[in-house]
Amino acid sequence: MSSHQALTAVDLLRLGELTVRGQVREASNAVLFCSVAYAGEEAACVYKPVAGERPLWDFPDGTLAQREVAAYELSEATGWGLVPPTVLRDGPYGEGMVQLWVEADPGAALLALVEEGEPGEGWKAVGPAQIAEDRTALLVHADTPQLRRLAVLDAVINNGDRKGGHLLPTQDGRLYGIDHGVSFHVEDKLRTLLWGWAGEELTEEAAAVLEALDGRLAPGTPLAERLAGLLTAAEVDALRQRVAVLRGTGRHPVPSGQWPAIPWPPV
Fold first, then answer.
1. What's the longest Cα–Cα distance across the chain?
2. Which of 7, 71, 195, 214 is paired with 16 by a 20 to 30 Å CA distance?
3. Residue 5 pLDDT class (50, 70, 90 cuts)
């Protein structure tokens, strides 16, 4: 890289020296909080080594780290930038996923429980939630363009684990989704808290993005070639089919009934 070229976040993650600073204890797989430094630039990041992944019976091929990078590739292909910069590289504990750390705004509310039975203005209903032995409340999520885009991306990548804790709204008004290791399965495994638009027509913006994505996923394209190094051929084919189905129906998907619709625990 020449000195006059700007260092991108992806460059920094790929080329920088990783230093482990701590561990995210509540994670089910090894998640290390790190700093990455290169050419005078430094940033915080997350490093998930493949060696720290717990085997999943229904994801026997590839690694969670590869799926996380594939989700970033799809996010970038949509132009929505919903997944933080993510790369696959070697690190202190071997190959793994390295992702730019995003500081969430603790004051930004995207999920809520309401006892009125109907979501208020600016909110979409997900479904009833048990809050006590004899009490239920309505789980709702915010009705925002960013969250709706993420719901579309989740449908495309077949995200099996969209929990509340995987939503990172920032103080500058952006929204990021993280933890996409259980995505891209060939069978319908969409589990999400973002069912508020289920069955509704896709926005014109989403329809246009899916049309463009359809072309970018064609065999032999740069995106298809990158995904071929991260996913199996069957998973890439299933990805193309999901895009085709979404374009054909023109609607947000609805729960299949063959798979739990909401992840557990939901947060």
1. 65
2. 71
3. low
